[in-house]
């Protein structure tokens, strides 16, 4: 290894992923992996079983689980979780670019962050990951000229996750906001 090069360890206990998957294969593989991790965690820590079941295990896809989780995290007394769930699910289900970015972001966290113990851990607990996914939906709303809703979502993300990404900001995929608290990304 050349001097100064950082080598990240290969995450342990991973099922081998497809060598050259298309988006559908990758999404199916990753969702299977996340559900297996959640089942394992529910068995080893019964206190989390209900939470893991309602947030991951009961859902048929990553898009549904992520939409449910974000809706519950970002809801308020006036911005209902059901409204947010529908908003997120519609965005993730109908936009292959969003789905691909979500998968790339999960992989980035799992591979580049030695503290990330599983994909399910990232999905449930990494506020940088969650803020980024919510931002992607806010950005989509912004580009559709649904700016009041984009800004409302942006405000909830800043309040809940302490991550402030303007809805006009364009972010690539494979993003890892490690720890994320106090991250500010402007619109330009």
UniProtKB/TrEMBL annotation:
It comes from Kingdonia uniflora. One of its GO terms (molecular function) is serine O-acetyltransferase activity. Residues 30-134 form the Serine acetyltransferase N-terminal domain. It comes from the Eukaryota. The lineage of its organism: Eukaryota, Viridiplantae, Streptophyta, Embryophyta, Tracheophyta. Coiled coil: none annotated. Pfam families: SATase_N. Residues 1-27 are annotated as: Disordered. SUPFAM superfamilies: Trimeric LpxA-like enzymes. GO terms for biological process: cysteine biosynthetic process from serine. This is Serine acetyltransferase N-terminal domain-containing protein. One of its GO terms (cellular component) is cytoplasm. SMART domains: SATase_N.
